[in-house]
Design goal:
- The chain has ten helices and nine strands.
- The strands form two sheets. A six-stranded mixed β-sheet has the order 2-3-1-4-5-6, sandwiched between helices. It has a three-stranded mixed β-sheet with strand order 7-8-9.
- Strand 5, helix 5 and strand 6 form a beta-alpha-beta unit.
- Helix 7 packs antiparallel against helix 9.
- The chain binds guanosine-5'-diphosphate and magnesium ion.
- The site of magnesium ion (MG) has 6 residues, from helix 1.
Length: 307
C-alpha cells in the first residue's frame, strides 16, 4: 500500500460572531493564539494558527464573524473574513449548534451572507456544529443538521465541542485528508504567521475585554509601541498603548486607584510570558484618540486591513 502523502493547506474558519471560531482554532492547535470572549466581535482581523503533525500541516485562519455591520472598522473586519475565504483550500463554517437547536428562527438571518457563496463552492466545505456540550439531548440537533444539509448539499457536517474537545479529532482528521498534497509551508515549531508583538497586543485586548463591562472594549485598540529584547538577560520590555475613544473611557480602563489597568497588566504579562517563553516587563499606557475606529490610516497601523 502507498503511504498517504503529506498534506498542507489553509483552512478559513468562518461564521457568525460568538460561534466559537477562535476557541476552535486554539483547541485545534493546542495553544492559545486567538483571543476569546463571551462577547461577539472580539476577533478583529485574520488570526492564523498552525497545526504541524507527522502527516499534515494545517494552517487555520480565524476570521471576524460574517454579519451585517456598519462603520469603517466593521467593513474592514468583514473584508478580512472574505479575503481569508479566498485564500483557503478548505472552508470551515462554524455555527453555535446549541443556539440554533433552541432558536432555529435565528439561523437564516445569521448565515444569510454565507448561504449562496458556500452553496456555489467547489472546495471542500466542513460545517462545524459547535457547542454540542451544551445540548442535553443530542437528538435536538437533527432538525438543524437537516436544514444545513438542505442549504449546502456538498458539505460535511461535524458536531463538535471546541471547549471540551468532543468530536475534534474526527474533524481534524477529515480536514487533513481534504488538504492538497504538499510539503509543510512553515517550520514545525511555528504557531502562527503573525508576529509575536501582534499576539501580545491581542492578549492585552483580551484582558481588557474580560475586565471591563458594557460596550467600552469595542472602542479600545492596543498598539505595541516598543518591543525591546535584552538577549543577555533573556527578557523583553514591551510598551503597549491602549487607545480609547473618550476620556471617560480612559478612567474606566485605568480604574479606581489604577486597579483595573494593574490587573490587566498582570494577567496579560503572565500570558505573554507563556507565549514567548521569556521574562516580560509590560508597561501599559492609556491614550485618548477620538474616532480612531473611523481613521483608515490608524486602522492600517494596527494591522487592520488596507489603508
Ligand atoms: P468567535 O466569536 O466565533 O471567535 O467565538 P469565541 O471563540 O470567542 O467564543 C465565544 C464564546 O463561546 C466564548 O465565551 C467561548 O468560551 C464560548 N464557546 C466556544 N466554543 C464553545 C463550546 O464548544 N462549548 C461551549 N459551551 N462554549 C463555547
Ligand atoms: Mg473570534
Amino acid at each position: 500500500m502507498n503511504q498517504p502523502a503529506f498534506t498542507c493547506g489553509w483552512v478559513a474558519l468562518m461564521g457568525p460572531p460568538n460561534a466559537g471560531k477562535s476557541t476552535l482554532l486554539n483547541t485545534s492547535i493546542g495553544q492559545k493564539v486567538a483571543i476569546v470572549s463571551p462577547r461577539p466581535q472580539t476577533t478583529r482581523n485574520r488570526i492564523t494558527g498552525i497545526l504541524s503533525g507527522k502527516d499534515a500541516q494545517v494552517i487555520f485562519m480565524d476570521t471576524p464573524g460574517i454579519h451585517q455591520l456598519r462603520g469603517k472598522m466593521n467593513r474592514v473586519m468583514l473584508q478580512s473574513a472574505w479575503q481569508a475565504m479566498e485564500g483557503a483550500d478548505v472552508l470551515g463554517i462554524v455555527l453555535d449548534a446549541d443556539l440554533y437547536a433552541r432558536r432555529p428562527e435565528f439561523l437564516d438571518k445569521d448565515i444569510a451572507p454565507l448561504i449562496e457563496p458556500i452553496a456555489a463552492e467547489n472546495r471542500p466545505v466542513f460545517v462545524i456544529a459547535n457547542k454540542v456540550d451544551l445540548l442535553g439531548d443530542k437528538s435536538k440537533l437533527l432538525p438543524l443538521l437537516e436544514t444545513l444539509h438542505g442549504y449546502w448539499l456538498r458539505a460535511e457536517i461535524f458536531p463538535v465541542s471546541a471547549l471540551s474537545g468532543e468530536g475534534m479529532p474526527r474533524l481534524l482528521d477529515a480536514i487533513k485528508k481534504a488538504l492538497p498534497a504538499g510539503e509543510a509551508q512553515f517550520p514545525e515549531d511555528m504557531l502562527s504567521t503573525l508576529p509575536m508583538r501582534f499576539m501580545a497586543a491581542e492578549i492585552v485586548r483580551e484582558k481588557l475585554f474580560l475586565s471591563l463591562r458594557q460596550e467600552l472594549p469595542y472602542s479600545t485598540a492596543v498598539d505595541i509601541e516598543a518591543w525591546d529584547e535584552d538577549f543577555e538577560r533573556g527578557h523583553v520590555t514591551i510598551h503597549a498603548v491602549i487607545y480609547v475613544g473618550r476620556s471617560s473611557h480612559k478612567s474606566m480602563v485605568i480604574g479606581h486607584a489604577g486597579k483595573n489597568i494593574k490587573q490587566v497588566g498582570q494577567t496579560a504579562r503572565k500570558e505573554i510570558m507563556e507565549l514567548i517563553d521569556r521574562k516580560v516587563h509590560l508597561e501599559l499606557w492609556v491614550k485618548v484618540k477620538e474616532n480612531w475606529n473611523e481613521d483608515a490610516a490608524f486602522l492600517h497601523e494596527l494591522g487592520l486591513g488596507a489603508p
